[in-house]
Structures are given as C-alpha cells and as structure tokens.
Design brief:
With about 100 residues, this protein is an alpha+beta fold. It has one domain. Helix content is about 70%, strand content about 15%. The protein contains two helices and two strands; from the N terminus they run ββαα. Strands 1-2 form a two-stranded antiparallel ribbon. A hairpin with a 2-residue loop joins strand 1 and strand 2. Helix 1 packs across helix 2. It is elongated and about 75 Å long. About 5% of the residues are buried.
C-alpha cells in the first residue's frame, strides 16, 4: 500500500499528515483519543489555556509509554537470562 495525505484536527487546529494507507484508521483513532483526553482535562480543571490540557495529555502519554518501555526491557532481560540458563543446562548434558 502507498501513502496518502490526510488532515487531522486537534483542539480545532488542523494538521496535514502523510501516512501509510494501512495506518489511516490508527491515526484517526489517535486523533479521537487525543481530543477526548484533552476535553476530559478541560472539563476537570479550570484552565485559562487549552495548551495546559494538551501538556497534561502529553505528560500522561509519555509516562505510560515509559512504563511500558521499562516493562518490556525487564521482560526481555528475563527471557535472555532464562535462555542462558537453558543453554548452560544443555551444555552440561553434552558429551565433551
């Protein structure tokens, strides 16, 4: 599939994007999720500026991303350790 031009709107401001055709649905979902989360912060807190809500969404997403990233690193380290243990056990059983 090729790439296509689309336009998304975040807090009413339009942004042109070039995305792979297979990613259009994902980008639209991101657009919707961002606007929903921004609106939740705007209704929850008394901000003078929408940018404050956008920044809170940014902080929230960065935090969640970092937690996932750290979790995956831990999981991969554990997998590597288990593989190394298995290799050691196999090497013990092999004739010299």
């Amino acid at each position: 599939m090729g790439e296509t031009n689309i336009e998304i709107s975040i807090t009413g401001k339009k942004y042109p994007l070039i995305v792979k055709e297979e990613d259009i649905e994902i980008v639209r979902d991101v657009e919707s999720s961002l606007n929903k989360k921004i609106n939740e912060y705007l209704s929850k807190f008394d901000f003078n500026d929408q940018l404050d809500a956008v920044n809170l969404v940014l902080i929230d997403l960065a935090y969640k991303h970092k937690k996932i990233e750290n979790s995956l690193k831990g999981d991969s380290n554990e997998v590597v350790e288990n593989i190394e243990k298995i290799i050691k056990e196999i090497n013990k059983k092999l004739p010299e």
